[in-house]
Amino acid sequence: MYWIACCLDPRIKAKWLIKNHSDHEAILNRVKSFLKEAYLSEEELLVRPRDLVQKTKMSLELEFLQEYGSTITADDDIERYFNTPSVNFVLNEKENQTEWILNWWKVHK
Questions:
Q1: In contact, 26 and 47? CB cutoff 8 Å
Q2: Rounded Cα–Cα distance for residues 60 and 12 (Å)
Q3: Cα–Cα dist 74/33, whole Å
Q4: 80-88, Cβ contacts within 8 angstroms, sequence gap of 24 or more
Q5: What is the pLDDT of residue 60?
Q6: Radius of gyration of the chain from Cα atoms?
Q7: What CA–CA distance (Å, rounded) separates 24 from 38?
Q8: Is 77 helix (H, G, I), strand (E, B) or coil?
Q9: Cβ of 31: how many Cβ atoms within 10 Å?
């Protein structure tokens, strides 16, 4: 879980693993596999079964738009996250770092 938490900090991503573990590729593959299993794709989020009317509506929309676009899978999102540069930041000792990360993910959900 510690490795996952490090990787999910957009300021660090895989940098810490690469610097500190010789088997960082294997660890990173395990992290990505875990995230791909646990993370719902955008399509799955749109068609959650908790609201049948909403599910039907979204399913019709997705069916209609399917011909004109592509769906984003969890694999795509996770790979895109790891393939983009880490977020630049200025370390502020007075700032709550946990709150910073949570706010970043809230904005980028």
A1: no
A2: 40
A3: 10
A4: 81/10, 81/13, 82/7, 82/13, 82/14, 82/28, 82/32, 86/10, 86/11, 86/12, 86/13, 86/15, 87/10, 87/11
A5: 73
A6: 17
A7: 21
A8: helix
A9: 21
Over residues 45-81, the pLDDT tens digits come to 555 555 555 555 567 777 777 777 766 666 788 888 9
User: Could you say which DSSP state residue 90 is in?
Assistant: -
The residue type of 103 is N
Where helices occur in the chain by DSSP H, the ranges are: 2-7, 15-20, 24-38, 42-46, 52-65, 74-83, 97-107
Q: What is the pLDDT of residues 17-51, one digit of tens each?
A: 999 999 999 999 999 999 888 887 666 655 555 55
